[in-house]
Structure formats: structure tokens, C-alpha cells
Amino acid sequence: MIKLTRNQWCFALVAAGLTAAFHHHLFGFIEEEQWSSIGWYAGGYGVAMFLAGLAFGATDSVAKSRLDLGFGYHAITFVVVLVVGTLAALVYGQPVWPQLLGTAGWAVGLYVHYRMSRRTVKGLDAEEAFP
After folding, report:
1. 47: confidence class by pLDDT, cuts 50, 70, 90
2. What stretch of H or E contains 125?
3. Residue 61 falls within a domain, yes or no?
4. Is 66 helix (H, G, I), strand (E, B) or coil?
5. Fewer CB atoms < 10 Å away: N or C end of the chain?
6. What one-character DSSP code corresponds to residue 92?
């Protein structure tokens, strides 16, 4: 079983709130056909999510250990965005397939991140970490 740190739980809650707010406003922009606003809003959402992950990750007490927490925060973001985004699409009567299609590409990146994080310890190659 995967054990999350306190900061990871807090990040998951913040990410869920940001994602719910993002989708609420996104569907409003789509309904009002404010196409030029969507790009700026999506960029702001991405920056806010990145900064939240950075802040919680940097202050995580486990961050000082040899464990790489980057993949954990990436996986949390993936799950939260998938679940909250899909639920929001269903609640607002929007199609779910764009959410799932975008997530499929992201899943490939997440898998690569997983493989790379298991191959290294805090960015060190296995040969350097375990001579």
C-alpha cells in the first residue's frame, strides 16, 4: 500500500480545489464562447498547480531523505485531475472523451517518470549511488 506524507495529502486537497475551480470556469468560458480566455486561464491553472506542488514538495519532511518525491506528486496530480475533471465533465453535461484522451498521453509521461524515478536515487544513476 502506498503511504502518502502529510504534505502530499494537503497537496491533493489543494489540487482538487484548483482543478474543480478550473473546470467550473472552463465550462463557463466554453458556454459563453470566450475562446481567447481559455488559453490564459489554462496557463494560470498550470502555473498554480506547479507552484503548489513545488511548495508542498520543498517543505515535505521526507524530501530530505534519499527518496524521490517528484513521482509521488506527479501521480497525485494525475489521479486528482483525472477524477475531478471526469466528474466535472459529467456534472456539467460535457463529453468525457476529451478528458480521457488527454489523460492517455499524460499516462505515458507518468510511466516514463516512474521508470526513471525507480532507476535513480535523487537524480544519481544507480552506478553512482550503489558503487
Report:
1. very high
2. strand 124-125
3. yes
4. coil
5. N
6. T
Position 1 in a domain: no
Task: Count CB neighbours of 43 within 10 A.
Answer: 10
Closest-CA residue to 19 (of 102, 84, 72): 84
Task: Compute the mean pLDDT over every residue in the chain, rounded to the nearest whole number.
Answer: 84
| Residue whose cell numbers read 474543480 | 20
Report residue 48 as a C-alpha cell. 498554480
Separation CA 32–CA 34 (nearest Å)? 6
Burial environment of residue 93 by CB neighbours within 10 A (0 to 12, 13 to 18, 19 or more): exposed
Q: pLDDT by residue (tens digit) across 56-79? A: 988 887 766 655 678 889 999 999
What's the total number of domains in the chain? Answer: 1
Asked if the structure places residue 119 within a domain, the reply is yes
93 belongs to a structural domain: yes
Query: Helix (H) and strand (E) counts for the chain?
Result: 5, 2
Count CB atoms within 10 A of the CB of residue 14: 17
Identify the domain containing residue 101 by its residue range: 6-129
This model's pTM is above 0.70? yes
